[in-house]
Amino acid sequence: MQEKLKNIKEEALRAIEAADVPEKLNDVRVRFLGKKGELTAVLKGMKNVAPEERPKVGQLVNETRAAIESVLEETRKNMEKAIREERLKQEVIDVTLPSRKNLVGHSHPNTIALEEVERIFVGMGYEVVEGPEVEYDLYNFEKLNIPDGHPAKDEQDTFYINKDIVLRTQTSSVQARVMENTKPPIRVISPGRVFRSDEVDATHSPSFHQIEGLVIDKNVSFADLKGTLEVFAKELFGPETKTKFRPHHFPFTEPSAEVDVSCFKCGGKGCRFCKGSGWIEILGCGMVHPHVLEMCGIDPEVYSGFAFGVGLERIALLKYEIDDMRLLYENDIRFLRQF
């Protein structure tokens, strides 16, 4: 038995010496010290050893196990140290090299423009509200004084889910919901994505964004609307900006107007940017139609108000002098990193 244990020890030490990777060391451990290893087999054969010899044989087995484990552990540490040193040599860092530039993204031009508009109106006491993009015909059209048969309800302009549900064509639907559920005074802007059946070109898209504003209170007049939009234009385009109101027609406002701002590029003198007119159209507005107030549960004899709407992409195009709306959606990093 002593001879057998000696042979096991010598064979284990030779196997350890021959191992060149940690995996082979583990194989040696399993082969000699594992549950089915050679030392375990010796212990299982102790029943064949004379009772008086068993303590001595058991001690020899434990000494052999301890010797093998000691050499295994020392070899493992030396091997790991050598591997670590070799890895450090291969992964050496040259601290004199310039660091890699961390490419950090930033807000999209549309988002930058939206945040600026929200900042302006929140500063004037407005609340930012949102609503569903898939909307009932009732809120998208009827409560905005656009009855059946109106040209705006033509299927060539609107995406219909069914006869009662559409993809909203304007965020005015949010205004109708606010008026229906909120007691005046009301001061809100409603930004969001809208959908119309337009061909894609430099100035049109079937999906774009609008920002609409609504004020309802006692004794609100067109003068309040004009003053509000003048402040907005000066904050957005510069303190020298002037505004001009041109009569127009919208079903949900009366009277209605289109609003132009003096060209911030040439100061109103006329240039390529404003096509020589000195003015740039930016939004539509008007006093909320009394019938719209009635349909939303607000007494037009007590309250009045104004509404306005501007295309978010139009603001971005003007502010950053972009001449093609499609550039905003192509996700070309060379274009977007300019903002």
From TrEMBL:
GO terms for biological process: phenylalanyl-tRNA aminoacylation. It holds the Pfam family Phe_tRNA-synt_N. Tetramer of two alpha and two beta subunits. Belongs to the class-II aminoacyl-tRNA synthetase family. Phe-tRNA synthetase alpha subunit type 1 subfamily. InterPro entries: aa-tRNA-synth_II, aa-tRNA-synth_II/BPL/LPL, Phe-tRNA-synth_IIc_asu, Phe-tRNA_ligase_II_N, Phe_tRNA_ligase_alpha1_bac, Phenylalanyl-tRNA_Synthase, tRNA-bd_arm. It is an enzyme of class 6 (ligase). Binds 2 magnesium ions per tetramer. It comes from Mordavella massiliensis. Mg(2+) binds at E254. It catalyses: tRNA(Phe) + L-phenylalanine + ATP = L-phenylalanyl-tRNA(Phe) + AMP + diphosphate + H(+). This is Phenylalanine--tRNA ligase alpha subunit. Its cofactor is Mg(2+). The keyword Ribosomal protein does not apply. Transmembrane segments: none annotated. Its EC number is 6.1.1.20. Gene3D superfamilies: Bira Bifunctional Protein, Domain 2. It is found in: Cytoplasm. PROSITE patterns: AA_TRNA_LIGASE_II. GO terms for molecular function: ATP binding; catalytic activity, acting on a protein; magnesium ion binding; phenylalanine-tRNA ligase activity; transferase activity; tRNA binding. Keywords: Aminoacyl-tRNA synthetase, ATP-binding, Cytoplasm, Ligase, Magnesium, Metal-binding, Nucleotide-binding, Protein biosynthesis. It comes from the Bacteria. One of its GO terms (cellular component) is cytoplasm. Its main location: cytoplasm.
